[in-house]
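ARCHIVE CARD
Drawer: 12
Card no.: 0347
Subject: one protein chain, sequence and derived structure
Cross-reference: see card 0346
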Amino acid sequence: MDRPPRLAALTLAAAGLLLGASGCGDDAPAEATIGIRFSRFEPEAVAATAGKPVTITLRNDDPIEHEWIVGPDDVHKRHRTDTEPKHDQIPTEVTIPPLSTRTTTITFDQPGDLKYICHLPGHEKYGMVGTLSVTE
């Protein structure tokens, strides 16, 4: 009986990848939605274009708080040992309260693959990791 939620998640994942990669036209900012359910990111991969803004909607369907930190290895290294309780000032570092939605808009300067991770205790080890691919 798990088929409809899975189908919906796959549809959202495909839409997020297509929107993130296409930008919906040259003038429109790209958009992607990343859902959080059962302490997992859905989809686990999104795309953006270097030099163009991308608006990311983070939807937390869990009854617990999560965070979404995207960046290179040095950013994640700092957050693995950091004590920042909330993230609401830097567009690439967002705290998402339980059963809520947050939106952030980011322009990535360089192409490459970046990880997005929830660094709350045990969440990364559990698998709350995804990839944001920035293309030219």
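Annotation on reverse: The CA atoms of residues 21 and 74 lie 25 Å apart. The chain has three helices and nine strands.
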